[in-house]
Amino acid sequence: MKAIVVEPPTRGVTVKDININISTLANDEVLIKTIATGICGTDRGIVSGLLKFSRPPVGKKELILGHEGLGQVIELGSEVKGLRKGDYVVPIVRRGCGKCSNCLVGRQDFCETGEFVEAGIRGLDGFMREYFIDKERYLVKIPDEIRDIAVLLEPLSNVVKAYNELMFCQRRMIWWCNDGSYNCRNVAIIGSGPIGNLFAMIFISQGFNVYILNKRDPSPTESFIAEKIGATFINTLKGLTLTKLDLIVDTSGHPMAFIPLINKLNKNGAVILFGTTGEEYATLTADLVTFLVENNILIFGSVNASKEDFENGVNFLSIWKSRFQTVLNKMITKVVKPDESESILTKKPAGEIKTIISWV
């Protein structure tokens, strides 16, 4: 069986044939044929050796890469009730520690022990392979009408979680506008990659005014996406005239991208930190701390997603299928076969928003 493997924390990636027994299933397991897998910055961070927390399963040297997956059910264990042969499914990424209260109730995205594993990232083989076996509880069923865009569900699930966290925290006061909508609230999203665009789509769907920020002019694809969803793309190197923001979403992971914007927040505003990176230093001044305190500014980080977030993501994709179909298609800027993936995983292609590996 063909698979894409790494040996973290060693730099490099290989496409190779591996031997995995897929002939027997436990009662609650499902055999899945991989249809597509997405490539993201986490994958490239592992391949580059920069993500030091990545590790293979216990007792192994190699890790099968890939946490953004879409597959089709081939065989079912005897106790699997919610799926049928031929169904399309997306697997969730993180599996809980089995100890803390959050993991015991299916909220492993809030694991308290840190002893979780994540498919294709740490301690658990991922989905960049021709077939894989998984338990029914970790699979999200995909309606046939959105299977062409369902490979976007994993990144979207993380966005859904962060959005829900924001709205939960902002119940600390009245945050909606005097007409009951959010059309008086301005959101600045730093970064125009797939996560940035998905954040833009979810906030626009809820009535917010959205600005997508980058340090360059938009590509033709980015211009198309921004126009179609109703967002404004801003090249910050040409100046930023925005003075009144209610929310900053950072998908870049660079402190110098979002810290200078914080003092543009209105009272009771918020900052979502989503991106991760390294090798950058920024100073938090006492004046900025005073601003945060005196204006009730909320700052929180968000990572991973629960099965509920995946299922809510299915609902968003189903709604967006008619409203944003061309946008979702445009977000997939390149499709490659597994044998072409090594160079793509090593270096991001120019103009990429989302690259997909097709396994069929």
Order of helices and strands: EEEHEEEEHEEEEHEHEHEEHEHEHHEHE
Straight-line distance between termini: 13 Å
Which descriptor suits the 3D outline? globular
Q: Kindly identify the CATH topology of the largest domain.
A: Quinone Oxidoreductase, Chain A, domain 1
The CATH class of the largest domain is Alpha Beta
Write the CATH homologous superfamily of the largest domain. Medium-chain alcohol dehydrogenases, catalytic domain
| Total number of domains | 2
- Radius of gyration over C-alpha positions, nearest whole angstrom: 21 Å
Strand content: 25-35%
Please identify, by name, the CATH architecture of the largest domain. Answer: Alpha-Beta Complex
Largest sheet: 7 strands, mixed
| Mean pLDDT rating | 95
Unreliable runs: none
- Helix count from the secondary structure assignment: 10
How does the helix and strand content classify structurally? Answer: alpha/beta
What's the β-strand tally? 19
Question: Can you put this structure into words, describing what you see?
Answer:
By secondary structure, the chain is an alpha/beta fold. The chain folds into two domains: 2-151 and 332-358, Quinone Oxidoreductase, Chain A, domain 1; 174-295, 3-Layer(aba) Sandwich (Rossmann fold), CATH 3.40.50.720. Helix content is 26%, strand content 26%. It contains ten helices and 19 strands. It has helices at 41-48, 101-104, 153-169, 194-205, 220-229, 255-258, 286-294, 307-323, 325-331, 341-346; strands spanning 2-6, 14-17, 29-39, 63-64, 68-76, 88-91, 94-95, 117-119, 123-124, 131-135, 139-142, 186-190, 209-214, 232-235, 245-250, 265-273, 298-301, 332-336, 354-358. The strands form four sheets. Strands 3, 5, 6, 10, 11, 18 and 19 form a seven-stranded mixed β-sheet that branches. Strands 14-13-12-15-16-17 form a six-stranded parallel β-sheet, with helices on one face. The radius of gyration is 21 Å and the shape is globular. Residues 148-357 form the Glucose dehydrogenase C-terminal domain. It catalyses: D-glucose + NADP(+) = D-glucono-1,5-lactone + NADPH + H(+); D-glucose + NAD(+) = D-glucono-1,5-lactone + NADH + H(+). Substrate binds at residues 42, 118, 154, 158, 304. Residues 27-144 form the Alcohol dehydrogenase-like N-terminal domain. InterPro entries: ADH-like_N, Glc_1-DH_arc, Glu_dehyd_C, GroES-like_sf, NAD(P)-bd_dom_sf, Zn_alcohol_dh.
